[in-house]
């Protein structure tokens, strides 16, 4: 059997182009192989270039000739590795066997294959324009945009806009909050389209000015999320990294310029449609440019800018390769060679960058998977969620673990024992029931409290100042003019009837009408008594001793008050309770008497307490508006502001000491529940808790007012 080192190498494809490239960081010359079919570029070094000059001979002949004609000393394995690289990327002329493989791969990628659907779900592109002719005309007409004076002018105007917005920051933030509506979201979408169109146009114009051809522009779909894109693949023809940096940063520079000028326009415009449009452009451009495009952890503009600044092509791939080897060497003790020689400090930086990239992508892909799950109907959402997790997270982990398994015989015995020990500790940590805390949110309130309202619309006469009060003391006095008029009228009529009765008793002839007059007198006396009772209801007294709070300082004598306007609240400051809400999958871990720590918002110390009662059914309505997400609270609610979107149970908690501020306070709770392990398989089920109180739909809310 012939040695592969002595067999002639298959020829290269005729449509490939070999272009000069910038020198490597160590001064070695570089070249680019341009695959004109897919417009893809492959960077090669001096050794690969010398091998390609002699391609077609056997690997042994090529290695001997390169060693004879240059300072390089390649071996046969390096030439064979170059052949494998070229074959993997389909840069060699395909023979019958290779054509069969390509045909099989092409048939497997048709729409009837699950791989085709998977690929097109995760990522696909739709070219829309071939803009080269129009870009050349536009680049000539907009040459003034690339003058340094224009750049400095835009920077100055943007800074001026930022300073003007800072002076009216409250108005700006209020306008941003008010824009989150159905109409506002549609406007944000339009602003996003405008900003991203100009963003991609910036890339295309700079590439055209540098003499490159922009193949096409269109829309790319990443997990069905549309994004505009520009094909600037020919930027690798440029020898200088600063030119590639100009193309990579053109999009962000365009978007930041748009954001700065829109910010200035918003600050100078009067209220109206134009100012709203500038607000949408400014906020969209600022946020997406700085938060998304500037990130170097995904293959967006920030990554290419960083690569060109460092003159370090394929930064992600090379850093990830170093990180995988570092992981194997430090964790498993495998003495694998480094993929590339770097100084130790540079290698540590690249490894740290790779780990940061992995962490960033893990969080991002998990977030995308959750968003996909929530966006689609449940069955399809679960399937797509699993695809996201399997493709972006589980598959890379599986590849690395497969390599570990293949190299298990090379792992030192001490590292194996340490690995097994850590694995056993991990399993033990999952199985041991140590976790007992249940998280909840709630509102602390006085156990006894009375919100004071007028029984019916009336005119305010006096309102007590805030402070301590005793039982029976007057909190507010009101009057109702119609009642006063009725009382005076009834009393006057009663006096007239009384006088008439006195006259009739003196005149025997009037005894025949005595009974009728007496009846009318009784009616007037009853009406007067009723009016006095109603007027007494307007004299609002404290039913128990406590503290009078939340008195509106704007109330003045003579103002009319309706039944929906509270005059204040009377609380007993001695005992406090918390109306807490616990998720459905956590409530069965609780029992009456469990210890509780309540952390009021804005306070560093916790208040101790215990569970008094647990609701038997899910809460259909929140007892406090401040808990609803509709009003900025932590509990998710839908169209109805007080109706939770997820099943929660109400838990009543008694605090051991009162709150410092003596006002209703929102906070978070840590409840000591049943001890359980992290692994659900080792958790034993317990019977549902026995409810200690039921109160209609909302479970536990006890009210003593209204």
What does this structure look like?
Strand 5 and strand 6 form a beta hairpin. The strands form 5 sheets. The chain has a 6-stranded antiparallel barrel with strand order 7-16-19-18-17-20. The N and C termini lie far apart (99 Å). The C terminus is likely disordered. The protein has 706 residues and is of the alpha+beta class. It is elongated, with a radius of gyration of 40 Å. Helix 7 packs across helix 10 and helix 10 packs antiparallel against helix 11. The chain contains 18 helices and 20 strands. It folds into 5 domains: 105 residues, no CATH class; 199 residues, no CATH class; 88 residues; 132 residues, Efflux pump adaptor protein, beta barrel domain (Elongation Factor Tu (Ef-tu), domain 3, Beta Barrel); 113 residues, no CATH class. The longest helix has 32 residues.
The number of helical segments is: 18
Q: What is the total tally of β strands?
A: 20
Question: Given the helix and strand composition, which structural class is it?
Answer: alpha+beta
Backbone CA Rg: 40 Å
The helical percent reads 40-55%
Q: How far from one another are the termini?
A: 99 Å
Uncertain segments are: 685-706
Quick overview:
The protein is of the alpha+beta class and about 700 residues long.
Which features does this protein show?
706 residues; alpha+beta; 6-stranded antiparallel barrel; 18 helices; 47% helix; disordered C terminus
Show the helix and strand layout.
Layout: E1 16-21, E2 30-35, E3 40-44, H1 46-53, H2 59-69, H3 76-88, H4 96-108, H5 114-122, E4 123-129, H6 132-141, H7 148-167, H8 169-178, H9 182-209, E5 217-222, E6 225-230, H10 241-268, H11 273-293, H12 301-310, H13 315-332, H14 344-375, H15 378-406, H16 413-431, E7 435-446, E8 449-452, E9 458-463, E10 467-469, E11 474-479, H17 481-506, H18 514-537, E12 539-541, E13 546-549, E14 560-561, E15 568-571, E16 576-583, E17 595-600, E18 607-614, E19 648-655, E20 665-676
Antiparallel strand pairs: 1-2, 2-3, 4-5, 5-6, 7-16, 7-20, 8-15, 9-11, 9-14, 10-13, 11-12, 13-15, 16-19, 17-18, 17-20, 18-19
Helix pairs in contact: 2-3, 6-9, 7-10, 9-10, 9-11, 10-11, 10-12, 13-14, 14-15, 17-18
């Amino acid at each position: 059997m012939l040695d592969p080192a002595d067999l002639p190498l298959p020829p290269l494809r005729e449509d490939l182009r070999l272009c000069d490239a910038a020198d490597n960081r160590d001064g070695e010359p570089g070249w680019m192989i341009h695959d004109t079919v897919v417009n893809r570029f492959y960077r090669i070094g001096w050794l690969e270039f010398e091998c390609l000059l002699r391609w077609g001979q056997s690997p042994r002949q090529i290695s001997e000739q390169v060693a004879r004609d240059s300072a390089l000393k390649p071996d046969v394995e390096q030439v064979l590795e170059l052949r494998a690289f070229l074959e993997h990327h389909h840069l060699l002329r395909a023979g019958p066997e290779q054509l069969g493989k390509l045909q099989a791969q092409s048939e497997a990628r048709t729409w009837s294959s699950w791989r085709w659907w998977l690929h097109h779900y995760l990522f696909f592109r739709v070219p829309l324009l071939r803009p080269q002719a129009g870009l050349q005309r536009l680049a000539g007409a907009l040459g003034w945009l690339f003058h340094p004076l224009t750049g400095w002018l835009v920077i100055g105007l943007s800074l001026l806009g930022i300073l003007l917005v800072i002076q009216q920051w409250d108005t700006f933030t209020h306008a941003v909050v008010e824009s989150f509506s159905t109409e506002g979201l549609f406007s944000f979408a339009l602003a996003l389209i405008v900003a991203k169109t100009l963003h991609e146009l910036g890339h295309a114009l700079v590439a055209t000015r540098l003499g490159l051809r922009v193949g096409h522009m269109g829309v790319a779909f990443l997990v069905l999320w549309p994004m505009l894109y520009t094909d600037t693949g020919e930027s690798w023809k440029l020898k200088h990294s600063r030119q590639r940096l100009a193309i990579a940063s053109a999009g962000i520079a365009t978007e930041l310029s748009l954001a700065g000028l829109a910010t200035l326009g918003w600050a100078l415009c009067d209220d109206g449609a134009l100012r709203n449009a500038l607000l949408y452009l400014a906020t969209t451009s600022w946020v997406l440019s700085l938060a998304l495009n500037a990130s170097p952890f995904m293959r967006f503009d920030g990554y290419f800018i960083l690569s060109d600044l460092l003159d370090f092509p394929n930064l992600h791939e090379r850093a990830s390769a170093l990180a995988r080897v570092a992981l194997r060497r430090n964790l498993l003790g495998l003495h694998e060679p480094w993929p590339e020689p770097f100084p130790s400090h540079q290698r540590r930086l690249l490894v740290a960058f790779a780990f940061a990239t992995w962490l960033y992508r893990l969080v991002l892909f998990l977030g995308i998977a959750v968003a996909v799950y929530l966006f689609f109907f449940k069955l399809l959402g679960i399937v797509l969620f699993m695809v996201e997790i399997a493709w972006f997270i589980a598959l890379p982990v599986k590849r690395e673990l497969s390599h570990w398994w293949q190299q298990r015989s090379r792992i030192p015995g001490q590292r194996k024992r340490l690995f097994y020990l850590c694995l056993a500790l991990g399993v033990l940590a999952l199985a041991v029931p140590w976790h007992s805390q249940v998280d909840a949110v709630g509102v602390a309130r006085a156990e006894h409290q009375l919100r004071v309202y007028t029984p019916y619309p009336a005119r305010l006469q006096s309102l007590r100042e805030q402070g301590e009060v005793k039982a029976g003391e007057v909190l507010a006095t009101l009057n109702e003019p119609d009642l006063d008029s009725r009382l005076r009228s009834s009393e006057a009529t009663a006096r007239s009837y009384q006088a008439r009765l006195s006259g009739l008793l003196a005149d025997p002839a009037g005894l025949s009408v005595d009974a009728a007059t007496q009846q009318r007198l009784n009616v007037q006396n009853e009406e007067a008594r009723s009016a006095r009772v109603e007027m007494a209801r307007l004299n609002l007294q404290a039913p128990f001793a406590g503290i009078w709070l939340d008195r509106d300082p704007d109330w003045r004598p003579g103002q009319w008050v309706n039944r929906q306007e509270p005059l204040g609240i009377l609380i007993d400051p001695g005992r406090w309770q918390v109306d807490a809400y616990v998720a459905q999958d956590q409530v069965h871990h609780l029992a009456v008497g469990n210890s509780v720590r309540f952390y009021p918002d804005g306070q560093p110390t916790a208040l101790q307490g215990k569970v008094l009662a647990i609701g038997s059914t899910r809460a259909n309505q929140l007892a406090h508006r401040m808990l609803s997400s509709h009003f900025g609270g932590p509990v998710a609610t839908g169209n109805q502001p007080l109706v939770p979107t997820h099943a929660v149970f109400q838990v009543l908690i008694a605090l051991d000491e009162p709150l410092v501020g003596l006002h209703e306070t929102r906070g978070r709770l840590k409840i000591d529940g049943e001890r359980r392990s992290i692994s659900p398989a080792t958790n034993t089920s317990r019977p549902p808790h026995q409810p200690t109180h039921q109160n209609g739909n909302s479970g536990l809310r006890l009210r003593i007012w209204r």
